[in-house]
Design brief:
693 residues, 27% strand, Rossmann fold, TIM Barrel, single chain, Immunoglobulin-like, alpha/beta
């Protein structure tokens, strides 16, 4: 039997010192390790190879750092190991230095005009070129044979078409890409990235296939060297919460929570390691973000069952802005002291939000994550990938937030989930295209009950939905106003729902229920003419289709996008009513401020099936997010929680303040609720509910 891999059940507290060339000139292994121990780090990510080699590689296709006059990387690794700190090699094979390019021009990324991308003397390379297809493997093999690294991380993988100033260069037209694309698809690479172009859709598939092949080969290569080397994307999944100068607002305050869940991807055999990036953006890598933002991200990592991870430019001892250090150390210290309490937990969310990809900034996804979080409905997130019915079994509902690309196999799994009693909630163009970016003639998600897409308008700003009316035509079972309000109680005194700029008119299968007819765009100026000139039509703003033991709910617009960008309660009320009334999801704390994030997890009770030895509620105070800044959160007092529990409660206690809490057990139609009150929440608290079984 293979030796147990070191990272399994390992207390992962990572610090990345993304070192500049000059940091190696006077680096001291003793000081470096002392600083890591002060943070409580158990893992460090250290620059090793790729653009710059930080050891005497000595090959003509590698550029060795000319500042290697301090302690060697071998000495630093040895000192870390003696201190019990594991070392991951940071590699970056996305670029080569200009002298290497001049010797190997066929390695470079090429624009449609045949130009290279040269940024400060670093030349972009192509994943299909000899450098990544061959020489990268040689470099990694040589590095791991010389240096006893415990893991490896690949930075900036994939087809890099932008530089550090975010200038876009288009698709790679190097001879290797052109030849491979022509051989595989019989086409020339298109000039621009437009999904309306069939050639570009093929090219997107080509890129996906190229990267999947390269990643598979690379993982196999490292595994063949040693089974004890942790590989990013296979054994741990690293992503980052960052900011950037000029990035469109709003700030994504749940970045760390969402990244952690999506990185875990329903796989508890992988370590989700979302790092908090110290700097405010590429142009200002030596200026730190708010210390309170750093803490918020780290608390969110823990609350969502992830590792703590901190990333800065330079070394810890010579960093130019140490304003975030104490807050980072505070959370790292808590993670160390409560490791046994937090390890082995499983998310007990009843709803799963699916993503298209690992790196996902989709506003529709973010809007649904916001509403679930601020309604205190615990959620899980994952990439749609290779879903199975077993993956979906723990969930009561699955949300497809405008998730356009769904393969026939994925659609079948989702339909089986609904057929067996689940609820599928989809918005926008969810499932309208296959995994090869081609539009379906008929949407394969049968559980949504969409018979036909009649039209998709993107010019309906000022259109609304009539919340107090139902739709009753075309085979749709309309419902009366009072019955409508049964499902949408937030709209008892509100007649209209704003629906943004896009709307899709669909014809539903017979037996569907429909609410909120579409009121076409109306005049909005001058004030004297702000009234409906065009009547509502029998086009539903939301439908529910019974399917097997469950139901499919379809929203033919994008409420998540509207709420994420605008943030008004009109949209949030609509989404909340869908979640609570049509999906049957329950809030952990109906009266709690939306500025508190609440997660629910459990510790399995041995192998006794779904039973849990403890429930853990983690609360993160996000009230410090104000405008586009992050301040110290405002303390919140007397928080009331309602936690579903099976079994007998022994004790309820807090992790941060080390206090026992009073609680009561109440029987409700859905089971039993542990009702408790937390006297004070400052920045974070964990509540452990010990069960007898």
């Amino acid at each position: 039997m293979d030796e147990k891999k070191w990272w399994i059940d390992y207390p992962w507290r990572l610090v990345q010192t993304n070192m500049r060339q000059i940091d190696w000139a006077d680096i001291s292994a003793e000081q470096y390790v002392r600083d890591l121990k002060e943070f409580g780090a158990t893992v460090v990510l250290l620059n090793a190879a790729g653009i710059i080699a930080n050891y005497p590689a000595g090959r003509e296709y590698e550029t060795v750092n000319p500042y290697l006059t301090g302690d060697s990387i071998a000495n630093i690794i040895d000192a870390c190991h003696k201190a019990g700190i594991r070392v991951l090699a940071r590699t970056d094979f996305s670029k080569i230095r200009e002298p290497v390019y001049q010797r190997h021009p066929d390695w470079a990324f090429r624009t449609a005009a045949g130009d290279i991308v040269n940024y400060n003397g670093d030349v972009h390379v192509c994943p299909n070129g000899p450098y990544q297809q061959d020489y990268m493997f040689r470099i990694i093999g040589d590095m791991l044979s010389r240096l006893p690294f415990d893991g490896i991380f690949y930075n900036m993988g994939g087809f890099q078409s932008r530089d550090y100033s975010y200038r876009y260069y288009g698709l790679c037209h190097c001879e290797n890409c052109r030849r491979k694309f022509r051989e595989r698809f019989g086409l020339e690479i298109p000039g621009a990235g437009d999904l309306k172009d069939p050639a570009y859709r093929r090219y997107k598939v080509f890129q996906d296939q190229c990267m999947e092949d390269l990643d598979t080969r690379l993982s196999a290569h490292v595994r063949a060297i040693s089974g004890q080397i942790a590989i990013n994307g296979l054994d741990y999944q690293r992503i980052e919460s960052n900011t950037e100068i000029g990035r469109p607002l709003p700030q994504w305050q749940y970045s760390a929570s969402s990244n952690t869940r999506n990185s875990r991807n329903l796989n508890y055999g992988i370590i989700p390691s979302n790092t908090t990036v110290d700097f405010i953006g590429f142009p200002y890598r030596h200026v730190s973000v708010s210390a309170h933002l750093q803490e918020l991200r780290l608390w969110q990592n823990l609350a969502n069952l992830g590792a703590v991870d901190y990333y800065l430019i330079g070394r810890l001892d010579n960093h130019g802005d140490k304003s975030g250090y104490e807050g980072v150390k505070k959370v790292f210290r808590f993670a160390r002291e409560n490791y046994e309490e937090l390890r082995g937990l499983r998310n007990l969310a009843a709803v799963l939000v699916l993503h298209q990809a690992h790196w996902d900034d989709d506003p529709e996804v973010r809007g649904w994550v916001r509403v679930l979080t601020e309604t205190h409905i615990p959620l899980e997130e994952a990439r749609i990938g290779r879903l199975s019915l077993r993956d979906l079994a723990p969930f009561k509902a699955v949300i497809l937030p405008d998730l356009k690309y769904v393969s026939p196999q994925q659609a079948a799994v989702l339909d089986d989930f609904v057929r067996s009693g689940g609820v599928l909630l989809a918005s926008g163009e969810a499932g309208f295209y296959d995994n090869h970016y081609e539009q379906y003639d008929k949407i394969p998600l049968k559980s949504l009950g969409i018979a036909e897409v009649l039209y998709h308008r993107r010019d309906v700003l000022s259109a609304m939905l009539l919340a107090d009316e139902a739709v009753g035509a075309g085979g749709i079972a309309g419902m009366s106003g009072p019955a409508t309000r049964k499902y949408f109680p937030h709209f008892t005194d509100v007649r209209y729902v704003a629906c943004g700029q896009e709307f899709i008119n669909v014809r539903m299968e017979e037996g569907a229920e429909a609410w909120m007819p579409f009121l076409p765009p109306q005049p909005f100026g001058p004030p004297e003419r702000c009234y409906a000139l065009n009547p509502a039509v029998d086009t539903p703003g939301v439908t529910r289709f019974p399917f097997g033991k469950g139901a499919g709910i379809y929203v033919p617009w994008k409420p998540g996008t509207l709420f994420y960008r605008e943030g008004y309660p009109n949209t949030a009320w609509f989404m909340q009513d869908l979640l609570e009334r049509l999906c049957g999801l329950a809030s952990l704390a109906p009266a709690l401020s939306p500025m508190v994030e609440a997660t629910l997890s459990g510790r399995p009770l041995g192998d006794a099936g779904p039973a849990h030895g403890a429930l853990v509620v983690q609360l993160v105070n996000t009230s410090g997010h104000y405008g586009n800044s992050f301040y110290a959160p405002v303390p919140i007092r007397d928080l009331a929680l309602e936690i579903p529990a099976a079994g007998t409660v022994k004790t309820v206690r807090t992790l941060r303040r080390r206090e026992k809490l009073r609680w009561s057990l109440e029987t409700v139609p859905a089971g039993k609720l542990v009702k408790l009150r937390l006297p004070l929440l400052e920045d974070y608290e964990g509540i452990v509910i010990e069960l007898k079984g």
